[in-house]
Amino acid sequence: MMKKHISIPIFLPQYGCVNNCVFCNQKTITGKTRNPSLEEATNIIDTWLISVDQSKTYVEIAFFGGNFLGLPKSNQINYLSLAQSYIDKGLVDSIRFSTRPDTISEESLLNLSHFSVKNIEIGVQSMDDEVLNQAGRGHTAEDSIKAAKLINEMGYQLGMQMMVGLPGDDDEKSLQTAQKIAECQAIQTRIYPVLVLKNTELADLFMSNKYIPLSIEAAIHRCIPLVELFNENKIKILKLGLHPSESFTSNKELLAGPYHPSFYQLVLSKIWRDKIIQNINNQELNHLKIAVHSKNINYAIGYNSENRNYFKSLCKTLTFQSNDSLDIDKVEIRYH
Asked: For the structural domain made of 4-261, what CATH number should be given?
């Protein structure tokens, strides 16, 4: 039986990051106002492990939210050594971290050789140099490509994170970024629609009408071909949209942008509605039966049953069914 996979997140907001990207307020995104001490990190790990069945679960410790390889080397070693102590005890299986592409070098990766690091995620955000420049990223697309090549060559599993809706970005540039991520042989990705957060340069641009964020509908439209491309290339999408946060839902920190606590489900619902429409022929719809694999039945029905309601308006009777004999991405349509 395949083991359940969990990540124990240790958030390091902006720790080690010397750049000030126009969109970034990591302390808002992570909900953290300072970085955890080793004692606090230990408590986080221990709390997560209380409810873990080791025999049925693959466990990784994940350092998120900052620029891990931008930390002083002593801090890197301290955090990695803490994680490694759990691996040595057989309580954790591996380590993951996220970092900027321009911190990846042969030397920085060799420094990891004594630790059980398996996954390295790099925040490429865009593969268009003009977009990167307007975002204040401080690195180029070529830096991301070189970093990806080194990570793969040195035997780590590669993740590449991207954003949609950055200043200067558009549908074509976002799709080109996704295509280059696939060409870099990433096995995992995260897609983040840009949000306008308080205390960022992007907030100033927004307030002065120099930046217009994507609407929810436009963000969904932009993300659909990205999801399809990543699925076609068997690149696992770890996240689409930011994790629900009280700071966002209460508008304490969020000024504007396509935030929705179930954004990924909205995108998948639209993908499956389009897929069903493409499979319906032009005959009169009286009694419609729609079957999909059980893993996708909720997406076929749609967020808040939006697809069910849409198709219900087109016919006299409607039935959604699970059919695990179907390929996972296929739809079966019957008219009686």
From this structure: 3.20.20.70
